[in-house]
Task: structure prediction
Amino acid sequence: MNDKNLIDLLRNYMEENHLSWTQVSRQLGVTQNTLTNWNKGGKISPRNRRAIVNLTSAPEQTCSVADCTARDTNDPITIAMLRVWGTLSERDKARVYMNALEYRDANPVQAVIPQPAPAPAPVAPAVTPAPVFPV
Result:
């Protein structure tokens, strides 16, 4: 795939996702001037070529940094999060992952051990008064 085709891929990606050149440059980890240079016919490095292909391809339904898979891929929130995750550069993914680890370590979750339900209070037998008959 030549550089012109890669620029066309970026343009299509921008239109489909309603993004600006600035947003795309951030996702690729390059400056906006670099994108302008590419648009004018500048050479795209092999590393940036791979980044463009990765960015414009359909995101995988996995998170590569944590090497995990989503359990519920029918959940719209999970789908949206994975879609956003797929647009992040590896550097940004690593930052998110490190922040998550820091948050986890700063706020340890206490294990909740279910306690048995208290025994019901004993119920005294109902005492019914003896009937009173007139004499």
